[in-house]
Design brief:
Shape: globular
Structural class: alpha+beta
Strand content: 15-25%
Largest sheet: 7 strands, mixed
Radius of gyration: 22 Å
Number of domains: 2
Length: about 280
Protein backbone atom coordinates (compact mmCIF):
# COMPACT_ATOMS: atom_id res chain seq x y z
CA UNK A 1 0.00 0.00 0.00
CA UNK A 2 1.11 3.59 -0.53
CA UNK A 3 0.61 6.40 1.96
CA UNK A 4 1.19 10.12 2.03
CA UNK A 5 4.10 11.11 4.28
CA UNK A 6 1.82 13.58 6.04
CA UNK A 7 -1.00 11.09 6.63
CA UNK A 8 -2.51 11.07 10.11
CA UNK A 9 -1.89 7.77 11.89
CA UNK A 10 -4.33 6.27 14.40
CA UNK A 11 -4.16 3.11 16.50
CA UNK A 12 -7.39 1.15 16.48
CA UNK A 13 -8.51 -2.14 17.95
CA UNK A 14 -11.60 -4.36 18.20
CA UNK A 15 -13.17 -6.82 20.61
CA UNK A 16 -13.69 -9.72 21.07
CA UNK A 17 -10.27 -10.84 19.90
CA UNK A 18 -11.32 -14.08 18.20
CA UNK A 19 -13.92 -12.30 16.07
CA UNK A 20 -11.41 -9.59 15.18
CA UNK A 21 -9.01 -12.23 13.82
CA UNK A 22 -11.87 -14.05 12.10
CA UNK A 23 -12.71 -10.84 10.23
CA UNK A 24 -9.45 -11.24 8.30
CA UNK A 25 -8.77 -14.96 8.23
CA UNK A 26 -12.16 -16.70 8.09
CA UNK A 27 -14.35 -17.28 5.05
CA UNK A 28 -17.47 -17.13 7.21
CA UNK A 29 -16.58 -15.05 10.28
CA UNK A 30 -18.89 -14.71 13.26
CA UNK A 31 -19.04 -10.96 13.90
CA UNK A 32 -22.17 -10.78 16.06
CA UNK A 33 -20.41 -9.06 18.96
CA UNK A 34 -17.50 -7.37 17.16
CA UNK A 35 -16.97 -3.78 18.34
CA UNK A 36 -14.40 -1.42 16.87
CA UNK A 37 -12.54 1.21 18.90
CA UNK A 38 -10.90 3.96 16.81
CA UNK A 39 -10.38 7.69 17.38
CA UNK A 40 -12.09 10.41 15.36
CA UNK A 41 -10.62 10.30 11.87
CA UNK A 42 -10.96 11.75 8.37
CA UNK A 43 -10.86 10.24 4.90
CA UNK A 44 -7.27 9.49 3.94
CA UNK A 45 -6.20 8.81 7.52
CA UNK A 46 -4.31 5.58 8.25
CA UNK A 47 -5.36 3.18 11.00
CA UNK A 48 -3.02 0.54 12.40
CA UNK A 49 -5.25 -2.23 13.74
CA UNK A 50 -3.82 -3.65 16.97
CA UNK A 51 -4.88 -7.12 18.08
CA UNK A 52 -5.16 -7.29 21.88
CA UNK A 53 -3.84 -10.32 23.74
CA UNK A 54 -0.77 -11.70 25.51
CA UNK A 55 1.40 -10.44 22.63
CA UNK A 56 -0.30 -7.33 21.16
CA UNK A 57 0.44 -7.01 17.46
CA UNK A 58 -0.45 -4.91 14.44
CA UNK A 59 -2.73 -7.00 12.26
CA UNK A 60 -3.12 -4.63 9.33
CA UNK A 61 -2.71 -1.05 8.08
CA UNK A 62 -5.69 0.50 6.34
CA UNK A 63 -6.38 3.90 4.79
CA UNK A 64 -9.90 5.22 5.22
CA UNK A 65 -11.68 6.75 2.25
CA UNK A 66 -14.54 8.18 4.28
CA UNK A 67 -16.34 7.65 7.53
CA UNK A 68 -19.75 8.04 8.98
CA UNK A 69 -21.36 7.50 12.32
CA UNK A 70 -20.59 3.93 13.37
CA UNK A 71 -19.13 2.88 10.03
CA UNK A 72 -16.16 3.49 7.74
CA UNK A 73 -14.97 2.66 4.25
CA UNK A 74 -11.48 1.36 3.45
CA UNK A 75 -9.66 2.90 0.51
CA UNK A 76 -6.41 0.92 0.71
CA UNK A 77 -5.22 -2.04 2.78
CA UNK A 78 -1.79 -3.50 3.39
CA UNK A 79 -3.43 -6.91 3.82
CA UNK A 80 -3.70 -9.27 6.78
CA UNK A 81 -0.29 -10.18 8.20
CA UNK A 82 -0.16 -13.91 8.94
CA UNK A 83 2.39 -13.54 11.75
CA UNK A 84 1.46 -10.06 12.92
CA UNK A 85 3.94 -7.31 13.75
CA UNK A 86 4.60 -7.33 17.49
CA UNK A 87 3.88 -4.00 19.16
CA UNK A 88 6.79 -4.70 21.53
CA UNK A 89 9.12 -4.93 18.51
CA UNK A 90 7.88 -1.58 17.18
CA UNK A 91 8.27 0.00 20.63
CA UNK A 92 11.80 -1.41 20.92
CA UNK A 93 12.75 0.31 17.67
CA UNK A 94 11.09 3.55 18.77
CA UNK A 95 12.77 3.46 22.19
CA UNK A 96 9.53 4.05 24.11
CA UNK A 97 6.00 2.69 24.57
CA UNK A 98 3.11 3.57 22.31
CA UNK A 99 -0.22 4.82 23.63
CA UNK A 100 -2.83 2.12 24.06
CA UNK A 101 -5.46 2.04 21.29
CA UNK A 102 -7.68 3.78 20.46
CA UNK A 103 -5.21 6.67 20.09
CA UNK A 104 -4.04 9.24 17.56
CA UNK A 105 -0.29 9.64 17.08
CA UNK A 106 1.39 13.00 16.68
CA UNK A 107 2.71 13.72 13.15
CA UNK A 108 6.31 13.04 14.21
CA UNK A 109 5.44 9.84 16.09
CA UNK A 110 3.23 8.73 13.22
CA UNK A 111 6.11 8.95 10.75
CA UNK A 112 8.49 7.14 13.10
CA UNK A 113 5.84 4.51 13.83
CA UNK A 114 5.46 3.70 10.13
CA UNK A 115 9.24 3.45 9.72
CA UNK A 116 9.49 1.14 12.75
CA UNK A 117 6.52 -0.93 11.56
CA UNK A 118 8.11 -1.43 8.13
CA UNK A 119 11.47 -2.40 9.66
CA UNK A 120 9.83 -4.84 12.10
CA UNK A 121 7.66 -6.28 9.34
CA UNK A 122 10.68 -6.92 7.12
CA UNK A 123 12.96 -8.18 9.90
CA UNK A 124 11.00 -9.28 13.00
CA UNK A 125 12.76 -9.13 16.36
CA UNK A 126 13.05 -12.69 17.80
CA UNK A 127 10.43 -13.48 20.42
CA UNK A 128 13.00 -14.23 23.10
CA UNK A 129 14.33 -10.66 22.84
CA UNK A 130 10.83 -9.26 23.37
CA UNK A 131 9.65 -11.78 25.97
CA UNK A 132 8.38 -10.04 29.09
CA UNK A 133 7.39 -13.20 30.95
CA UNK A 134 10.99 -14.20 31.66
CA UNK A 135 10.32 -17.85 30.91
CA UNK A 136 13.46 -19.23 32.52
CA UNK A 137 13.29 -16.91 35.53
CA UNK A 138 9.64 -17.87 36.05
CA UNK A 139 10.60 -21.49 36.65
CA UNK A 140 10.90 -21.34 40.42
CA UNK A 141 11.59 -25.02 40.98
CA UNK A 142 15.08 -25.71 39.68
CA UNK A 143 15.81 -28.30 42.35
CA UNK A 144 16.41 -32.01 41.81
CA UNK A 145 12.64 -32.57 42.00
CA UNK A 146 12.08 -30.67 38.73
CA UNK A 147 12.04 -33.77 36.53
CA UNK A 148 10.65 -33.79 33.01
CA UNK A 149 10.16 -36.32 30.24
CA UNK A 150 12.23 -36.05 27.09
CA UNK A 151 9.00 -34.90 25.46
CA UNK A 152 7.45 -31.60 24.39
CA UNK A 153 4.31 -31.15 26.50
CA UNK A 154 2.57 -29.43 23.58
CA UNK A 155 3.21 -31.45 20.39
CA UNK A 156 4.25 -34.57 22.38
CA UNK A 157 7.38 -35.08 20.25
CA UNK A 158 10.04 -37.24 21.91
CA UNK A 159 13.66 -36.14 21.97
CA UNK A 160 15.18 -39.04 23.91
CA UNK A 161 17.20 -40.09 20.85
CA UNK A 162 19.28 -36.90 20.96
CA UNK A 163 22.49 -36.36 22.94
CA UNK A 164 21.65 -34.92 26.35
CA UNK A 165 23.14 -31.48 25.67
CA UNK A 166 21.22 -31.16 22.41
CA UNK A 167 17.93 -32.38 23.92
CA UNK A 168 18.27 -29.95 26.83
CA UNK A 169 18.72 -27.14 24.30
CA UNK A 170 15.65 -28.24 22.30
CA UNK A 171 13.39 -28.54 25.36
CA UNK A 172 12.78 -25.14 26.93
CA UNK A 173 10.66 -23.99 29.90
CA UNK A 174 7.72 -21.74 29.00
CA UNK A 175 6.11 -19.67 31.74
CA UNK A 176 2.33 -20.06 31.79
CA UNK A 177 -0.39 -19.75 34.42
CA UNK A 178 -2.33 -22.56 32.72
CA UNK A 179 -0.52 -25.16 34.83
CA UNK A 180 -0.26 -25.38 38.60
CA UNK A 181 3.54 -25.42 38.53
CA UNK A 182 3.63 -22.25 36.40
CA UNK A 183 5.49 -23.56 33.35
CA UNK A 184 5.58 -26.25 30.66
CA UNK A 185 8.49 -27.91 28.88
CA UNK A 186 8.21 -27.17 25.15
CA UNK A 187 10.33 -27.88 22.12
CA UNK A 188 11.90 -24.82 20.53
CA UNK A 189 9.29 -24.77 17.75
CA UNK A 190 6.28 -24.91 20.08
CA UNK A 191 7.94 -22.40 22.39
CA UNK A 192 8.23 -19.92 19.52
CA UNK A 193 4.56 -20.50 18.62
CA UNK A 194 3.58 -19.96 22.25
CA UNK A 195 5.03 -16.45 21.95
CA UNK A 196 3.41 -15.79 18.57
CA UNK A 197 1.06 -12.77 18.55
CA UNK A 198 -1.91 -14.88 17.44
CA UNK A 199 -1.58 -17.64 20.07
CA UNK A 200 -4.12 -16.78 22.73
CA UNK A 201 -3.51 -19.68 25.12
CA UNK A 202 -1.49 -22.84 25.60
CA UNK A 203 -4.70 -24.86 25.44
CA UNK A 204 -5.33 -23.49 21.96
CA UNK A 205 -1.81 -24.43 20.88
CA UNK A 206 -1.97 -27.91 22.42
CA UNK A 207 -5.26 -28.66 20.66
CA UNK A 208 -3.84 -27.48 17.33
CA UNK A 209 -1.52 -30.51 17.42
CA UNK A 210 -4.33 -33.01 17.99
CA UNK A 211 -6.19 -34.95 15.27
CA UNK A 212 -9.27 -33.12 13.96
CA UNK A 213 -12.80 -33.83 15.13
CA UNK A 214 -14.22 -36.74 13.08
CA UNK A 215 -17.53 -34.88 12.67
CA UNK A 216 -16.63 -31.25 11.87
CA UNK A 217 -12.87 -31.56 11.13
CA UNK A 218 -11.99 -28.74 13.58
CA UNK A 219 -8.78 -28.85 15.62
CA UNK A 220 -10.53 -27.95 18.86
CA UNK A 221 -10.37 -31.35 20.51
CA UNK A 222 -10.16 -31.42 24.30
CA UNK A 223 -9.24 -34.55 26.20
CA UNK A 224 -11.68 -35.66 28.91
CA UNK A 225 -9.86 -36.73 32.08
CA UNK A 226 -11.58 -38.48 34.96
CA UNK A 227 -10.18 -37.85 38.40
CA UNK A 228 -8.88 -34.68 40.00
CA UNK A 229 -5.77 -33.46 38.17
CA UNK A 230 -3.57 -31.06 40.19
CA UNK A 231 -4.64 -27.77 38.65
CA UNK A 232 -5.77 -26.97 35.11
CA UNK A 233 -4.09 -28.72 32.20
CA UNK A 234 -4.03 -27.08 28.75
CA UNK A 235 -6.46 -28.79 26.41
CA UNK A 236 -7.89 -31.04 29.14
CA UNK A 237 -11.36 -31.00 30.73
CA UNK A 238 -11.52 -32.51 34.24
CA UNK A 239 -14.58 -34.77 34.50
CA UNK A 240 -14.48 -35.47 38.25
CA UNK A 241 -14.14 -38.81 39.99
CA UNK A 242 -17.59 -40.36 39.44
CA UNK A 243 -17.66 -42.73 36.44
CA UNK A 244 -20.96 -44.40 35.52
CA UNK A 245 -22.00 -46.97 32.92
CA UNK A 246 -23.47 -44.20 30.77
CA UNK A 247 -21.87 -44.36 27.29
CA UNK A 248 -21.13 -40.62 27.49
CA UNK A 249 -18.84 -41.33 30.43
CA UNK A 250 -16.73 -43.62 28.27
CA UNK A 251 -15.77 -40.84 25.87
CA UNK A 252 -12.31 -39.38 26.27
CA UNK A 253 -12.45 -36.65 23.61
CA UNK A 254 -14.81 -33.74 23.00
CA UNK A 255 -14.89 -31.20 20.17
CA UNK A 256 -15.38 -27.72 21.59
CA UNK A 257 -16.74 -26.52 18.24
CA UNK A 258 -19.58 -28.97 17.54
CA UNK A 259 -19.87 -30.75 20.91
CA UNK A 260 -19.23 -34.22 19.47
CA UNK A 261 -17.73 -36.73 21.93
CA UNK A 262 -16.02 -40.01 21.08
CA UNK A 263 -13.52 -42.58 22.29
CA UNK A 264 -9.98 -42.19 21.02
CA UNK A 265 -8.69 -45.73 20.75
CA UNK A 266 -5.16 -44.66 19.84
CA UNK A 267 -2.31 -46.35 21.67
CA UNK A 268 -1.41 -44.94 25.06
CA UNK A 269 1.92 -43.31 25.70
CA UNK A 270 4.49 -45.29 27.62
CA UNK A 271 6.32 -43.42 30.38
CA UNK A 272 9.73 -42.22 29.35
CA UNK A 273 12.93 -41.57 31.24
CA UNK A 274 13.15 -38.15 32.83
CA UNK A 275 15.91 -35.59 33.11
CA UNK A 276 16.75 -32.93 35.68
CA UNK A 277 16.52 -29.41 34.34
Amino acid sequence: MTTNEQVAVHLGTAHPRDQFLALYCSDDPNLDELTFAIPEHDGGDLVAWVVPGPVPSVLNLEVFAAHGEGEFEVEDSAGWNLRGVAVAGIERRLGHELPRPPATLSPDLGRRFLDAYTAEHDSPTPWYVLDQAGCWDAVSDKSSSAQHEWRCECCRTLFNNLPMAQARAVLQPHATNETLRGFMMLCANCHAMAHDPYTESMAELVMAHRPPCPRCDCHTVAHLMFGMPPGPLPGVIAMGCVVTDDPSDQANCECLTCGHTWVDEGPGEEPEETFLF
